[in-house]
Amino acid sequence: MPSLPPAVAEIRLAVRTALAELPEGATVIVALSGGADSLALAAAVGFEAPKLGLRASSLTVDHGLQEGSDAVALRATKTAAGLGLDPLVVKVEVGEEGGPEAAARDARHRVLRDAASDVAAAAVLLGHTLDDQAETVLLGLARGSGATSLQGMASVRKDDDGLRWIRPLLGVRRETTRAFCVASDIEFWDDPHNSESRFARVRVRERVLPVLESELGPGIAEALARTAEQLREDAEAFDEMIHETIEDIVEHAEAGISVSVAALAANPAALRNRIIRLVVDSEFGASLTRTQTVEVARLATDWSGQGPIDLPGCSATRVGGRIVFTASGR
């Protein structure tokens, strides 16, 4: 009996490990684009899911952004059916808000959520690889948006309704997914957008990472992925501390929410800034820049009578021993 190609063995193991966390009888949906990453994932799911008593489907979203996208979607669907998955194609209209990439991503996410709800799926499986993670970390570093961006993508994320978003291949290199498809005689599609330098992610993939590998030595992508994992662990510990702290120092105020000045000032800067960002995000649905966060913190640590600070969706004012966040327009 011939031995299993290494790429096939690696990806099947990654998928089997991820699926083992799901209850027997559950349904999973593979987000299938027709590229090597998602097809390798679909093929491994089609092989492993029945052994674990799971039902597997695939969903291909045709954004209609490229000529021939309907043919690509149809080919992906036929391939999925041949791999033992129950395939579905959904065509969507993509808006322009935030640019074509963001709009397509948002539309895809909505369709996947709706499909998961329709079939009561336990999980949606995404084909992001270690290379995608490394690119995400570098893009976050370039934005200077702090540890939250440098955490990259979570291998597992659970929505409030219990739906899991799982990335089984987050520890697998992109070249391995291509080798899997070649070894399995699966024809895959190379998205032309993945070669267009107008996209920042493509420039990182084709220019920045190769230069780093050349100048600093191999293993850069793996090191970036490890960094993301470590930062995510740190963030989870911080989040636990923040939620415990917030219960004691936050109070609801008229038209907003308030935080104890003394408690904020007593905490380390890292924890203080996270508390401020979390309060504004959870109460007003807005994200603060570092500059805005530091200015709010100065109301507690370096107050000299400065007035209200205008923030996205709200304003922050020191009133006695508290910082009061009030919705804009109130």
Which tags fit this structure?
Uridine Diphospho-n-acetylenolpyruvylglucosamine Reductase, domain 3; 330 residues; alpha/beta; five-stranded antiparallel sheet
Any overview of this molecule?
The protein is α/β, with parallel strands linked by helices. 51% of the residues lie in helices and 16% in strands. The strands form two sheets. The protein has a six-stranded mixed β-sheet, with helices on both faces. The longest helix is centred in the C-terminal third of the chain and has 30 residues. The N and C termini lie far apart (74 Å).
What is the element layout, followed by pairings?
Layout: H1 6-19, E1 27-31, H2 36-48, E2 55-62, H3 69-82, E3 86-91, H4 100-118, E4 123-125, H5 130-143, H6 147-150, E5 156-158, E6 164-166, H7 174-183, H8 200-216, H9 220-249, E7 250-253, E8 256-260, H10 261-266, H11 269-284, H12 290-301, E9 309-311, E10 314-319, E11 322-327
Parallel strand pairs: 1-2, 1-4, 2-3, 4-6
Antiparallel strand pairs: 5-6, 7-8, 8-11, 9-10, 10-11
Helix pairs in contact: 1-2, 1-7, 2-7, 5-8, 5-9, 11-12
Examine the coordinates and then state which fold CATH places here, giving the name of the CATH topology of the largest domain. Rossmann fold
The level of helicity is 40-55%
Class of the largest domain in CATH?
Answer: Alpha Beta
DSSP, total strands: 11
Rg, nearest Å:
23 Å
Number of domains: 2
Largest sheet: 6 strands, mixed
Write out the strand line-up for the largest beta sheet, numbering strands in chain order: 3-2-1-4-6-5
